[in-house]
Specification:
about 400 residues; alpha/beta; Aspartate Aminotransferase, domain 2; 5-stranded mixed β-sheet; about 15% strand
Amino acid sequence: MSSLDGMRTRAVHGGRQDLGDLGVHAPPIDLSTTYPIPDHALGGEALGAWAEGAADAASPVYARLHNPTVARFERALAELEGTDDSVAFASGMAAVTAVVQAACLMADKRHVVAVRPLYGGTDHLLVTGLLGTETSYVRADEVASAVRPDTGLVVLETPANPNLDLVDIAGVVRQAGDVPVLVDNTFATPVLQNPAAHGAAYVLHSGTKYLGGHGDVLGGVVACAARLAAPLRQVRILTGAVLHPLGGYLLHRGLATLPLRVEAAQRTAAELAARLEAHPAVLRVRYPGLNREEDVRGVLGAQLRGTGAMLAFEPAGDPNIVVGKLGLITPAVSLGSVDTLIEHPAALTHRLVGPEARQASGVPESLLRLSAGLEDVDDLWSDLDQALRAA
């Protein structure tokens, strides 16, 4: 099981075990699209192994099948999440899609149970039925009643995007029974939460966010047991949803500073949440630990090791005016970067979820989501305060 013990060490050294044999200090970026195969019989055996979802083979053969740079990142992320393995993809949405395909379509179980709120892209994917699945949306305490014989997957996110709802992962896993549970761990990161330790089968990250950490790389990754990783690799090979080697390098490099960035941004977020709660132009603030009565199952502390760097709040004035008046804080979707970002979920990330579904899952129309960065907290507060007063 992963924990805070040794987290910084694992973040720095994870996935680098082969560098000594290579005689290098920094992980190399392998940009090859194809690899020499002098013995075609052995090459064919390697290709067959990759097609079966193997984690290793005698030759990479072709970049869609395997890439050493991406594999280092995968090993490092698995170490941080405390799982056997992880499988990286071209984006977080490619990763979500692969899990649904592997858990539902390949198992011929086409029903999904989802706990709202979720990231808007995930929610929209499940609503459309694009993958041939049917989805039942429930509250966290209603999972057991929604599971059917043809249920292939339960999906949840905690802390939830965008309102920071906390969900007891072990409680949902118990309700799910034999059905695998996917937990989106993007907001918490492995620094603050390890869903696999609480029974989750799949641990999802949009690597674009905190893992990369600098707003310059797109990628997704799923940490899981080896037996679940093999079908995910098969899906990745067949669909071509591969992570580019440069993306793998940048995500791997981002892991080294992940604990430091999360800890620093968390301090800022906690301070901003406290100041926003006392501000006369703010109706409500959503931040783990701020209102203990919202954490009825005691998730914070037992499951979630910290309050995190994400917060949400409802201004008394027009949220669009608040965003428009900001000067230092960047109005943009995404999160987890070194700079502070703010966005209006009803207008952007969760626009396609629909107003009724948003309201039912605790996402009011005026809610603003803020990702705290690494700036000086007083500079951020000055910007927020003047924008709130102007609105």
